[in-house]
Amino acid sequence: MKAIILNDFGGVEQLQEAELPMPGIKDGEVLVKVKAISINPVDAKTRSGEGLAKMLKDDKPIILGWDISGEVMESTSPLFTEGDEVFGMINFPGHGKAYAEYVAAPAEQLALKPENSTHEQAAAATLAPLTAWQAFSDFGRLRPGQRVLIHGGAGGVGHYAVQIARHIGAYVIATSSAENKDFVLSLGANEHIDYKASRFEEGAKDIDFVLDTVSAENSERSLSVLKKGGTLISTNGLSDATKERAKARGIFALGMHVQSAGEDMQHIAQLMEEGELRSEIMKVFPLGQMAEAHLQIETGRTRGKVVVVTE
């Protein structure tokens, strides 16, 4: 099978196409013929030597990627049978090995692909919406009627977070550039803040919940707009100083890391089936252009998601 392997940590030139044996599957796993793969910032960070690089450095060959959508070819699990179309984020954090034509995946980390979604849309709707879902339900608790501020509302995690927060029944304020204002509002945001034109502290007040997908510095600034008893969840980690300031203000603050979870994937699938959640795909690349996909992610200017297809 074709796969994209990582020769060494570094630039995109380290991503090389190779022919590898088909993976075998263990009990509880399925062999998936991959149709589409979603690319995330953690992919590029790991490739460069950050992210999950320390965890993967002793594995050979290293095959990056965690987000897949495809068809089950073999199964040793009662959850899925041959021919099922499935999607999910696999073995995260760990060695997902998604940049390949075939992947051995734990069945319990997958869900059936919604019939109203393409494989590209399904592959996109894995790590990113799982992050938002877990931020609002596991790491924090967003409730109907609360005011939520979502930083990076047009990005991979952010554009799903806006939709999920509105589904929960929250009042949503989202930041993005002016170019993405209409897009963010179309997702269901009640208000938009152009972070380039003004400081978000001027437009966001009495916030119950902040989801920050932008930076640790952004999270620090977010403390000033949160109510006492509010929640700050960051996908970029929090400094000890920020945690101490949050504690002193009676704010629950946490840097989160998403986890593979089939049950959560089923919630995502249901929202997609009901038309409550859609994937914005900025660009689709063929497998042989994985380097270009990484370069796009590294611009930090991706609206929605970048997807790679295997055929």
Rg over C-alpha atoms, rounded to the nearest angstrom: 19 Å
Structure classification: alpha/beta
Number of helices, counting only DSSP H or I runs of 4 residues or more = 11
State the helicity in percent bands. 25-40%
Residue windows where pLDDT falls under 50 for at least 5 positions? none
Approximate strand percentage = 25-35%
* Quaternary structure state of the chains depicted: single chain
State the shape. Answer: globular
From the N-terminal CA to the C-terminal CA, the straight-line distance is: 12 Å
Q: Characterize the main sheet.
A: 7 strands, mixed
- Would you tell me the overall average pLDDT? 97
- β-strand number: 15
| SSE pattern, N- to C-terminal | EEEHHEEEEHHEHEHEHEHEHEHEHE
SSE layout:
Elements: E1 2-6, E2 15-19, E3 29-39, H1 41-48, H2 53-56, E4 67-75, E5 85-89, E6 102-106, E7 110-112, H3 119-124, H4 127-139, E8 147-151, H5 156-168, E9 171-176, H6 181-186, E10 191-194, H7 200-203, E11 207-212, H8 216-222, E12 226-234, H9 240-248, E13 252-255, H10 262-273, E14 281-286, H11 290-298, E15 305-309
Parallel strand pairs: 8-9, 8-11, 9-10, 11-12, 12-13, 14-15
Antiparallel strand pairs: 1-2, 3-4, 3-6, 3-15, 4-5, 5-7
Can you give a write-up of this model?
The protein has 311 residues and is of the alpha/beta class. The chain is 29% helix and 28% strand. It is built from eleven helices and 15 strands. It has helices spanning 41-48, 53-56, 119-124, 127-139, 156-168, 181-186, 200-203, 216-222, 240-248, 262-273, 290-298; strands spanning 2-6, 15-19, 29-39, 67-75, 85-89, 102-106, 110-112, 147-151, 171-176, 191-194, 207-212, 226-234, 252-255, 281-286, 305-309. Strands 3, 4, 5, 6, 7, 14 and 15 form a seven-stranded mixed beta sheet that branches. Strands 10-9-8-11-12-13 form a six-stranded parallel beta sheet, with helices on both faces. Helix 4 (127-139) crosses helix 5. It is globular. The two termini are 12 Å apart. The mean pLDDT is 97.
